[in-house]
Design goal:
Blueprint: E1 5-7, E2 12-14, H1 20-28, E3 30-38, E4 52-56, E5 59-66, H2 71-82, E6 88-92, H3 102-105, H4 110-119, E7 123-125, H5 135-143, E8 164-166, E9 170-172, E10 177-178, E11 183-188, E12 191-199, H6 203-206, H7 209-212, E13 215-217, H8 220-233, E14 238-244, E15 248-250, E16 258-260, H9 262-269, E17 274-278, E18 285-290, E19 293-298, E20 304-313, E21 319-328, H10 338-355, E22 358-361, H11 377-390, E23 400-403, E24 419-421, H12 422-428, E25 434-441, H13 442-450, E26 463-464, E27 468-473, E28 488-489, E29 492-493, E30 499-505, H14 506-509, E31 522-529, H15 530-541, E32 552-555
Parallel strand pairs: 3-6, 6-7, 7-8, 12-14, 14-17, 17-19, 23-30, 27-32
Antiparallel strand pairs: 1-2, 3-20, 4-5, 9-10, 9-13, 11-12, 15-16, 18-19, 20-21, 22-24, 23-26, 25-30, 25-31, 27-28, 28-29
């Protein structure tokens, strides 16, 4: 990579030629390559509610929602973007699976792997959610075979991905080797292009400690830079990085007037040989220049496909220019791909009887969006459901329940008749974590709550059950934010020396999201799955209305 960037309105180009004559000569001796890219699909085989929010073309001060997404429409767009292009490749930057809606998650995301394979996906980096069910299950996604516990549930045997996972920075400690190959080289008209795939270094902090066991996640930039000499020795000059880490831009989905976040410093540390970076993880949409490199991201849930057009110099085999556009997967204009439709209908036949079971109803949408204190309407309901499922002595004897906000994936929306199905409930709690009731002292509860700010840039405020209240002070330093005197249960102050039965999910119980205090809990009792607790709660308490979020109070 040796070239400055020149911006266009919604795309930009990297130009090596300093004058029109030499530029024309370079164009004549170049090879065109189109890279199609997605990220953070998360098993959204059907369009997500709300589509994608973009700037209103008639008033850019406002934002509008555009219906978008779904495998059926995405397959059609991918085919259209390939049309007329001699050299194309379809890639992904992680989190294709995990935290998925019911249709995919019920079958351990096998339908999503099949849908992507049918679309012609060729290469994908691993994301943190690829590890939700552990490395062995991820290997099954690649290689195929029946689930070890649930066996073969779908309409046909699962053959595994036809695309290749890459994991340059994920090392299996027992072998010292990468979990999947670190890179793949593809040739276009005789010119090699390397695709390096990796996930964020912080993956162990956001997956279950059980899933992270035996794995090492190395520094992103160090990993990529160490591969450059090896690639150059193989004759590679053009390098594309697929990284499951991203940033937070300003501007619309095809712009980048400003961007912050981890991706900025990572790209700056990359060797100058890296030409293009396809990113993800933050669920944002952007086409950026960072440190003279093209950096893209395609929103989330299949609402965008990024088209990146490269020109490769036939002599130097390096990148002459790179342009990018994010294309919306518009459900209103793109036809449904028949093959994808048939695939989804085949899985629907197995899933529908369970998905359509009525859970209950809501009077209004239960939102997962937190208030300034970190509490959400849906978070309250989920915590109450988990307490209800474990309150009886035989079920654990719980007095308090806590649940992590990252496990709450979607709102439970109010439909015309207010009805809520098992699929709706599952979408909000898709990880199928089992409930664990354990004993903590009041002092341990306070220390656990302090760990909500372990990462000050990304606090994780636990959702709490009815009857438990406390206040935290945003002006206090880490370790002193929770006001001890404010901790109460049913109006009585929490005694630091007294023991309390507390319910969490199994992800938290082993120290997930950094809540290591929970590993000190004693007398553990395993309960039902979180989604089943919520389903039962709806059946017993419908219609359910959002309540005032007043369990957690914030000062400053």
């Amino acid at each position: 990579m040796r070239h400055p960037l020149l911006f266009a309105l919604t795309a930009f180009a990297v130009m090596a030629a300093p004058d029109p004559a030499s530029r024309a000569l370079a164009q004549a001796a170049s090879v065109d390559v189109r890279i199609l890219a997605i990220n953070d699909f998360h098993g959204y085989l059907r369009p997500p509610a709300g589509g994608i929010r973009i700037a209103d073309p008639d008033d850019r001060a406002k934002r509008i929602a555009v219906p978008a997404g779904g495998a059926e429409h995405m397959a059609t767009l991918v085919r259209e973007l390939r049309h007329g292009q001699k050299n194309t490749i379809f890639v992904a930057a992680g989190d294709l699976i995990g935290a998925s809606p019911f249709l995919s998650a019920m079958f351990h995301d096998e339908p999503t792997i099949e849908a992507m394979s049918m679309m012609g996906l060729e290469i994908a980096s691993v994301g943190n959610h690829e590890f939700d069910e552990g490395k062995d299950e991820l290997k099954r996604m690649q290689n195929g075979g029946c689930h070890p516990l649930d066996k073969c549930q779908g309409p046909h045997p699962f053959g595994g991905a036809k695309f290749h996972y890459l994991a340059a920075s994920t090392i299996e400690k027992n072998t010292g080797k990468t979990l999947f190959p670190p890179y793949e080289i593809r040739e276009f008209d005789g010119i090699p292009v390397a695709f390096i795939g990796l996930t964020l270094k912080g993956t162990p902090d956001i997956i279950s400690p059980v899933s992270a066991a035996g794995l090492e996640f190395r520094d992103e930039a160090d990993t990529v830079n160490a591969l450059v000499p090896e690639l150059k020795a193989r004759g590679v000059e053009a390098i594309v990085v697929l990284i499951h880490e991203g940033g937070f831009p300003t501007g619309d989905y095809n712009e980048c007037p400003g961007i912050s976040g981890a991706i900025v410093e990572i790209v700056k540390k990359f060797d100058r040989a890296v030409d293009v970076v396809i990113s993800g993880h933050t669920h944002q949409a952007y086409v950026c220049e960072i440190d003279g490199r093209l950096v893209t991201s395609g929103d989330k849930y299949g609402t965008l496909v990024t088209a990146i057009d490269l020109k490769l110099d036939s002599k130097t085999r390096d990148v002459i220019s790179a342009r990018a556009d994010n294309f919306i997967v518009r459900t209103g204009t793109l036809a449904k791909d028949p093959g994808q439709t048939a695939l989804l209908e085949a899985y629907d036949q197995f899933a529908a009887p369970i998905a359509n079971r009525r859970a209950g109803s809501v009077t209004d949408t239960l939102s997962r969006l937190p208030n300034d204190a970190g509490e959400s309407a849906l978070g309250d309901i989920i915590a109450d459901a988990q307490l209800a499922a474990t309150r009886a002595t035989a079920d654990g004897g719980a007095a308090i329940a806590f649940t992590n906000p990252g496990g709450i994936r979607t709102d439970i929306t109010s439909k015309e008749d207010g009805a809520v199905t098992y699929a709706d409930v599952f979408a909000s709690q898709p990880f199928r974590n089992q409930l664990v009731t354990l004993t903590l002292t009041g002092s341990q509860i306070k220390n656990m709550l302090e760990q909500q700010w372990l990462d000050p840039k990304r606090p994780r405020i636990l959702q709490v059950s009815k009857g438990f209240n406390y206040t935290w002070d945003g002006a206090k330093p880490y370790g002193e934010r929770v006001i001890a005197a404010s901790l109460s249960l049913n109006g009585a102050r929490i005694d630091p020396a007294k023991s309390y039965r507390v319910t969490v999910n199994n992800y938290l119980s082993v120290g997930g999201d950094g809540f290591t205090v929970l590993k000190e809990g004693t007398a553990q009792q395993i309960g039902v799955f979180d989604v089943d607790a919520l389903f039962t709660y709806f059946q017993a308490n419908s219609p359910i209305a959002p309540k005032a979020a007043d369990r957690i109070t914030r000062l400053n």
